[in-house]
Design brief:
The protein is an alpha+beta fold. The protein contains 15 helices and 7 strands. Helix 1 (2-20) runs parallel beside helix 7 (176-193), helix 4 packs parallel to helix 6 (153-173) and helix 10 packs across helix 11 (268-282).
């Protein structure tokens, strides 16, 4: 949730500085900040192929420029400036919602052409609506007010609806881009609320640009340190966490039993669903543990400040949670097609080999509409300063191999080869 709250804290800090009088930035400094954040965001969006953030930054820039141009740099109570404010108050939330539903397609002509055409049409509409009447030129001074008027109800409704949509989409997909769009739109609403022109509105537009640029940085961090499939921290985050560990600590290595067989039988899409299901259980591990995906079907759990005896109960709860979880199959129960030309009739199998493989599949995968899996776990603990983190991981891996070799769906410790925890089926037997 850091990607949701961090931009909001930044926006509240900007509002506090602007309205409490703690700092009074000059209009020139605010203009530098706006264009600096805009250019930085555009370059980052181009470098990381984020067309949605790139277009959102262009929208913020066009909105700021249109209001400043048609308002003649002063708060507009009526006339072209107020019309521009009302038009942008409807178009900006609409475009942000469209960007939220748009898929990232990079900077190709086919992906950018529709957005460019829409921006062009909307710019023409705003220009036509805000065209001043010839008789109004002499009375232009009467169209300005000392304080900004309240926003029209349609503008408030459009921003509220768009904010709800963006917030719901963030809660569903947990992507920093959705959070960036939400808080950037909030900053634009505050800018329009204070008239759209002047020192305070320009500062809010600058905050909107910085929030969008920050969303790209947060997305890059998420891709680098989190696994995209399971949303768990990745191997890089695991190795970074190892550098900060202080004894005592425990490391548990977890591997899904018969995962390759599950992939071969049901396909990789079902395998991905299994990984997500296991990751959701790992994310709720108790005892202060933090789960990581190390690669494939292998995961790690770090327990800072805990010994083996202190984490065994928590690992047993995790093992039973995984064992009791089921995945409802959506399609056919078995893979009906060959996996590809590289595995299609490469070597003729004998009748006995085919029967053995079919029996092996039936043992681990019952013919039902639900699929359940188990996991084997090996755990090791640092002993003072004697063992490095790499040695603890090696000891946990060896314990994991013992758990695999002695029946699977169990926990083994590095201290002894004796079985620590039996599966439910073994206990009943």
């Amino acid at each position: 949730m850091k990607s949701l709250f961090t931009p909001g804290i930044f926006l509240m800090a900007v509002a506090a500085l602007l309205h409490t009088g703690l700092v009074t930035p000059s209009p020139l400094l605010i203009a530098y900040a706006f264009y600096g954040g805009l250019i930085a965001g555009l370059l980052l969006a181009w470098r990381f192929h984020s067309s949605r953030i790139f277009i959102a930054l262009l929208l913020v820039f066009l909105a700021q420029q249109a209001i400043a141009y048609f308002s003649q740099g002063r708060i507009a109570a009526s006339g072209p400036g107020s019309v521009a404010l009302a038009a942008i108050g409807l178009l900006l939330p609409f475009n942000f919602v469209l960007l939220s539903f748009e898929q990232e397609k990079g900077f190709t002509f086919s992906s950018l052409a529709p957005a460019a055409l829409l921006l062009f049409v909307e710019s023409v509409i705003v220009a036509v609506l805000c065209r001043p009447e010839p008789s109004a030129a002499a009375q232009r001074a009467l169209h300005h007010a000392a304080t900004p008027p309240p926003l029209p109800f349609p503008t408030l409704l459009a921003f509220s609806a768009a904010g709800i949509v963006l917030l719901v989409r963030f809660m569903l997909f947990r992507k920093p881009a959705e959070s960036g769009l939400f808080w950037s739109l909030s900053a634009c609403l505050l800018s329009l609320r204070f008239g759209g022109v002047g020192r305070i509105p320009a500062a809010y537009f600058a905050a909107a640009a910085f929030i969008l640029a920050g969303a790209i940085v947060e997305t890059s961090y998420l891709l680098a340190y989190h696994d995209e499939l399971t949303t768990l921290p990745s191997r890089r985050a695991f190795h970074d966490a190892l550098l900060r560990l202080q004894p005592p600590y425990s490391i548990a290595m977890l591997d899904i039993d018969h995962f390759k067989r599950c992939n071969d039988t049901y396909g990789h899409d079902t395998g991905d669903e299994v990984l997500r299901m296991i990751a959701s259980r790992l994310a709720r591990v108790t005892g202060g543990g933090q789960a990581y995906r190390c690669g494939g079907e292998e995961f790690a759990v770090l327990f800072p400040g805990k010994t083996t005896s202190e984490v065994l109960d928590h690992l047993e709860k995790l093992r039973t949670d995984i064992e009791g979880s089921t995945l409802r199959l959506r399609g056919p129960e078995r893979r009906q097609e060959a996996r590809g030309p590289d595995r299609r009739n490469q070597r003729p199998r004998s009748r006995t080999q085919g029967q053995a493989i079919r029996q092996l599949s039936h043992v681990s995968v019952p013919p039902s509409s639900e699929l359940s899996v188990t996991a084997s776990i090996g755990v090791a603990t640092s002993r003072g300063e004697k063992l490095s983190a790499e040695e603890v991981i090696t000891a946990a891996d060896k314990a994991l191999y013992r758990a695999k070799a002695t029946g699977r769906n169990r926990i083994e410790t590095a201290a002894t080869a004796k079985r620590r925890v039996r599966s439910k089926a073994a206990d009943i037997a």
